[in-house]
Structure prediction request, 300 residues.
Amino acid sequence: MLLIVGSIAIDSIQTPWGRAQELLGGSATYAALAARLWTRVAMVGVVGSDFPAQYLKLFRKHQIDGEGLYQVPGRTFRWKGRYDETGRATTLFLDLGVFSGFQPRLTPALRRVKYAFLGNIHPTLQWQVLRQLTAPRITACDSREDWIGNQRRGFLKLLKKVDLVFLNDSEARLLTGVHSLTQATRLLARLGPRVAIVKKGEHGVLAASRDAFFSLPGFPVSRVVDPTGAGDAFAGACLGFLTTQRRITWLALCQAIQYASSVASMTIEAFGPARLLTATKADTLRRTKAFQSLTRAVVL
Ligand code: AMP
Prediction:
């Protein structure tokens, strides 16, 4: 089972191609909907009394375990964002709502999970969850410019304790202070985690450990509708795939990255999590096969 903590939100999104209000969103939501294609998922987080019952039903329908998911009086986390043509997001409004006072206490069963994704939310909350795990096999974290900017020390402390870190290009640059993404990825892998993964949107992804490096282009998507959650879905799919591996080798990680890139490319083809909600394992395998045929090297 993969435990996922992160925001569970109601999003309003504007992109150059349209806008949508009051969508199901949040980093944990996207990661969970992607990871469930490979493994059982337990979501840890909190929603307010205004959280639509139909969204809770959707989680149940997709077999997402709600043992660590609380509904309390108050407002759900809300995010309003605008994307430009390059996929860059600007936060127009953010209200942590019930997340601001949330102190997660994991049940004994959740403390024993072997895989955990500390999705993008306040680093203190990520840390509180990590501390409660008794014997994790793989832990990973993500963040956002808002947290790296305001909670830098907390995030750097977290990095010392996780196996994998997922960041996008601007987050990696902000954290390392280095412009070259190749250098920044290598540097991140020296700040604590065994592997650093830096996502570059349509330009693909880089991964580094202390002694290995991997680069994959993006799957070419001609009709991007909404980039929200692509990074979270990427991380969820990557970790979901890794939970199925007996030995976590560098090759397994590279395979996980290719599956994750395929799932991320599907996520952006519809507003909010709509495409992820209908995605099946067969869809992702088909997309990954198509991706592999595009990236196979030609040797003359
Ligand atoms: P991304 O695609 O990585 O930008 O993630 C988008 C999701 O992250 C949206 O569904 C938002 O609800 C959520 N989100 C936006 N800002 C934050 C934040 N500061 N902390 C946690 N989640 C956030």
About this structure: The mean pLDDT is 96. Residues 167 and 198 are 5 Å apart (CA to CA).
